[in-house]
Description:
Elements: H1 5-18, E1 22-25, H2 30-43, E2 47-48, E3 58-60, E4 74-76, E5 89-90, H3 93-104, E6 112-120, E7 129-135, H4 138-147, E8 149-150, H5 153-161, E9 165-170, E10 180-184, E11 189-193, H6 198-201, H7 204-220, E12 223-225, E13 227-233, E14 239-245, H8 252-256, H9 262-265, E15 270-275, E16 279-283, E17 289-292, E18 297-301, H10 311-316, E19 322-324, E20 327-329, E21 334-336, E22 348-349, E23 355-356, E24 376-380, E25 397-405, E26 415-417, H11 421-429, E27 432-434, E28 446-448, H12 461-475, E29 481-485, H13 505-515, E30 522-523, E31 528-529, H14 544-550, H15 555-570, H16 578-592
Parallel strand pairs: 1-6, 3-19, 4-5, 4-10, 7-9, 9-11, 14-25, 25-29
Antiparallel strand pairs: 2-3, 6-7, 6-8, 10-11, 12-16, 13-14, 13-15, 16-17, 17-25, 18-24, 19-24, 20-21, 22-23, 26-29, 27-28, 30-31
Helix pairs in contact: 2-4, 11-12, 11-16, 15-16
The structure holds sulfoacetic acid and manganese (II) ion.
Amino acid sequence: MTQNQQILDFVAKYQALMNPDKVVWIDGSKAQKNALTEEAIETGEVLKLNNKLLPGCLYHRTAINDVARVENRTFICSQDKTNAGPTNNWMDPQEAYAKLDAIAKDCMVGRTMYVIPFSMGKIGSPFAKYGIELTDSIYVVLNMIIMTRVSDKVLDKIGESGTFVRGIHSKVKLEEANRYICQFPEDNTIYSLNSGYGGNVLLGKKCFALRIASYQGWKEGWMAEHMLILGIQKPDGDTKYVAAAFPSACGKTNLAMLIPPDCYTSKGYKVFTVGDDIAWIRKGRGGKLYAVNPENGFFGVAPGTNIKSNPNALISTQKNTIFTNVLYNPKTNTVWWEGLDKNPPAEAIDWKGNPWTPNTVDANGVKVKGAHPNSRFTAPAKNCPCISPEFESRTGVPLTAIIFGGRRAKAAPLVYESFNWKHGVFVGAIMASETTAAAAGAVGVVRHDPMAMLPFCGYHMGDYFQHWLNIGAKVKKNAPRIFNVNWFRTDANGNFIWPGYGDNMRVLDWILKRCENAVDAKETAIGYVPNSADIELDGLDFSTKDLETILDVDKTTWTAESEDIEKFFEKFGDRLPAELKNQLTALKRRVKKISN
Ligand code: SAT
Ligand code: MN
């Protein structure tokens, strides 16, 4: 396959350690993909779904203790512990290699080792970075073929540049106690053992395109962010692009594929998806920031996805898609999940592999979910009806705005704009969000999650904040404006106040108008908040009073919030940029002046 000695040495080293019966090089061809699919069907690793209703679709269940990212088992293995920072787990690289090598010894006996050459970003583009993942899972191979650009051409490209990210994955025995997701940013290496779940094992995604790439971007002057990218085409044909960072399972895929309400579509507005999870951003033509989506597919949360909430995502999953940990309907040989429709199958198999009916309850009488809350679809980007014509762009799309957002029942208003880039970096740094099922652990707990990168920043987060400030200084007057949104404010009964989904277009519209200086705003302690009359409510049964409630900046809440931010910032010691300290002081001063 290749004469490149570095690649051959890498493969030989782990072949010797893990001792597979066979080594198979993945070339990206249809024929090989089909043969592997057949093999996985044969062994029961995947199930072929109804070819009429879901052509080319497969179904897979992971082990029941292995259904989400494991942040407590995820490590940044930098030479110097302080470089991993206070928000990452750290392990000494030598110690980590020794520990993981011991676990991996002979782990592929009786198995095949697949060698997957893949590209993050369009092959040959200025943004592209290459990787090779070794794995003993056909499921991983099939997912990587959807999520990244898998091709033997990557081997030649690596030959030219000489650098590539080394990814080593084995399911080993899927033991929780020996599960490790280790990133070695200084060695361009990822080592993942004892898991078979998405974010832990599709090494191109979080491990490479965020953890390793954020470190590469820091060294090379660009940014790897946990952001969707979308284009809004206006009636005059002009398209503006925005990137938005939200934590996992907070609606990035839904926002990226949004269908605007009638009052916009009737005027000719259209939304296009460039990406739903990761953005690589760098300075380009005209001194502006440009973004690409380095992925080639969507690894989206299934529950809640339906023909109303996100028709574009649902349509994307109707062919050549892999469903993981959703409910299986043996009668029709199809899948189902909570929130798909109101017609669950009468008898089915749940995500754990147990018989299930809509009335199944557990020992406590609580209804058993058919699909795991973090069950997923892996769908090719080209299936998406609203995929952007710029999806394959080599140079990316110019960003007009950057949006941060979390899941906050209280505190953050529906939308506000930062005063300038530096304040915008502060707004990103103080993000907090309720935890979701995307990571193992408690759900619904508010935690700080700066720029939605808490689990994904591959180096010291204080340095990461400084990097953001430096990038702003590089683009100066052409910097995108920075906003914060919160779709998740709840009322006294815990119900969401804002309708969300397609109606979020109304907020995006305000954001674009601000970027064009076409609309005024109220200056508040935390930033510019819309005058309620400037949020389009046409066709929506939503009162101005409710709107004002969710645009409110409350003194008590923000006093408590500032104290909390201060405590969070203390973690970073002297690696917290002075600029962010000053921003906090200024915020506190402004909050004090709020009149009740
Ligand atoms: O990390 S995953 O790719 O499994 C999904 C997520 O948490 O965003
Ligand atoms: Mn994500």
